[in-house]
Amino acid sequence: MLSITEIKELLATPQKIVITTHHKPDGDAMGSSLGLYAYLIQLGHHVKVITPTDYPQFLHWLPNNSDVIIYADETERAAKFVSEAALIFCLDFNTLNRINELGELVRASEAYKLMIDHHLEPEDFDDYRHWSINACAAAQLVYDFIVNELKDGAMINKDIATCLYTGIMTDSGSFRFESANAAVYRIAADLIDAGAEHWRIHQLVYDNATENRLRFLGHCISNKLEILREYNTAIISVTKQELNEYKIATGDTEGIVNYALSINGIKLAAFIIERSDKVKLSLRSTGDFPANEICKKYFDGGGHRNAAGGVSSKDLPTTVADFKNILKEYKTQLLQ
Predict the structure, then answer these.
(1) Are 102 and 76 in contact (CB under 8 A)?
(2) pLDDT tens per residue, range 55-72
């Protein structure tokens, strides 16, 4: 592993750098990536942010978003930047399969790979690791990397602050999750002092829904919500046909699972969605219930204890039935 001293030496002269993040990036993925981008370009580096896929429209306002390259849309161009990079920062993911086909290009690259992440069980592909499962967001760790590891906090400008605040806000559930401790609030205050307009960021992320998304949300709650009181569990499942009917775009389903979890007495919520190639599951839980264990054990996934995801190669009805059957194994924990 590279030491922080060696990282400082590498960053002391202009380098070709790629920043990448996980499939279907969320607010933390894009906030941490564009925040680090805004820092590195101040140092004179040649930096490209490359995402494996597209990401929600409500994140396109982020500073420097126009410079992002989507690998799925510009495969050859993105591959060229990866092959030429001296450093590759891997943010908000810790296994290369989380960036799809881009992962093999990163694995084959001779560039130094630097991981900044907060998920469990990192894959051993990196040359430097700034990692903690106790961080509420990758953006928190990017802040820590700049301020405490590189000792360069004076470089945090409005663009960096805006991006990192967005990442922390979204991955901490607007600071309501257990991981949003006092240290996180102090970081948020520092970012506001540096220019992050917290009220505007919240508005752009959370008060920026399309009519289709709002109608789809109503459909999910009114028609698709299933409560299993015998397991303190709520399920919302939707078909490809329903996604098409409401013209659902990337990001429109984000956060819907939290409405199911907000029901009084519910300890586990699942949003199960039929995509073109597979069925995807998003689980949320309260307290110490291990949503990530279910995803890892049964649905080829993982994540955090209270927020995890997985996939199934079976059809939607079978996947829902499998999920319900799995709940029997966890009944005691769910009813505690």
Answers:
(1) no
(2) 999 999 999 999 999 999
Cα(232)–Cα(247) distance, integer angstroms = 32
Q: How far apart are CA 10 and CA 142, in angstroms?
A: 17
* Token pair 């257990």: residue: 178
The answer, as to whether pTM is greater than 0.70, is yes
Same-domain status, 267 and 148: no
Instruction: Identify the residue whose tokens are 């599951």.
Output: 281
CATH number assigned to the domain comprising residue 179: 3.90.1640.10
In tens, the pLDDT along 204-221 reads 999 988 999 999 999 999
d(CA 115, CA 89): 6
pLDDT at 125: 96
Instruction: Provide the pairing of β-strand 279-285 with 268-274.
Output: antiparallel
Domain boundary residue, one of 206, 238, 265? 206
The residues, ordered by sequence, that sit 6+ positions from 9 with a Cβ below 8 Å of its Cβ are none
CATH number at residue 226: 3.10.310.30
Alpha carbons 229 and 334: distance in angstroms, whole number:
10
CB of 31 closer than 8 Å to CB of 166: yes
Domain ranges, residue 135: 4-206
Looking up tokens 């073109």 gives 276
| Radius of gyration over every alpha carbon of the chain, rounded to an integer in angstroms | 20
pLDDT tens per residue, range 305-319: 999 999 999 999 999
Other beta carbons within 10 angstroms of residue 336's beta carbon come to 10
